[in-house]
Amino acid sequence: MTAIDPTHIPENLYPVLDALCATGAQLSQVIARGALGPSLAAGVGENSDGDQQKALDVMADEMFEAALRGTGVRHYASEEQEEVLTLDADGAWALATDPLDGSSNIDVNVTIGTIFSIFPATADANASFLRPASEQVAAGYIAYGPQCLLALTFGAGTMLFALDPGTGRFELAQARMQVPTQAGEFSINASNRRHWIAPVRRYVEEAEAGETGDKGRNMNFRWVGSLVAETHRILTRGGTFLYPSDARNGYENGRLRMVYEVAPMAMLVEQAGGQATDGTAPILSLTARELHERRPFVFGSAEEVARIAALHG
Ligand code: AFP
Description:
By secondary structure, this protein is of the alpha+beta class. Helix content is about 25%, strand content about 25%. The protein has an eight-stranded mixed beta sheet, with helices on both faces. Strands 12-11-13-15-14 form a five-stranded mixed beta sheet, sandwiched between helices. Strand 8 and strand 9 form a beta hairpin.
């Protein structure tokens, strides 16, 4: 039984997408059992960067790694593993993933997700990922929320699939997602205000001033703490997301990881008519220097992202 309608998937990538979707469907069932199953939010260790690992982080990573063997993935990179793994020595693809993003929301029943990015594989494992983000051939996320959804792009628009709980198969829900150019909402972790650089503070103050300030219209505010949930909202109804560099120790390049969070989300958003930068430079023009490097991340409605870049200028 295939896990996703093959109609919209390039044939040479179908085994990879089928494995990702089958695993995503399994994971959505594990997550839906919540407290009826083993504790998914229990701390089980630390990842390569010292972030606390939850049981579900490790479980998801193990499930995706196992499922992708034999599908044509040569190199597997994960937030939960220090080094790149070789799965199929003659595979054509290099896949990077945050297997479970939004871990702080696991035990409070808020949408969490899996993010993935696919490059053509090169012989050298790291070199497959340390290259311009524009060389991605596919990017997507699976959102585990009230609906289990897959947003997916191969560079010809961003598609949306929904998991049919009755069949366990992802079916096309929207052929082409489109980010509205104007935003009505902005997203940033406002508790970090005292750490922000001036352009970020200025943008947020403009948004907060609403119709009483330069923007001339009111904005609403959202912060979920789950990149997949924020991205899905912005792909659906527009908005702006900022995780900038800030003055905290270790946050000089923000919090989000370039290879398996920032780059795939940037491809999805730009393929839907939005924009994605590090505050000024387009993410897709950037190249990661290290597998787990962080990068300041601003994305969403084109007008807003351009305003933020102008303020940085
Ligand atoms: P976790 O997976 O460690 O919860 O991190 C989630 C995340 O990478 C991203 O999904 C959120 O947008 C962001 O971190 C939330 O960061 P803060 O906890 O600093 O608000």
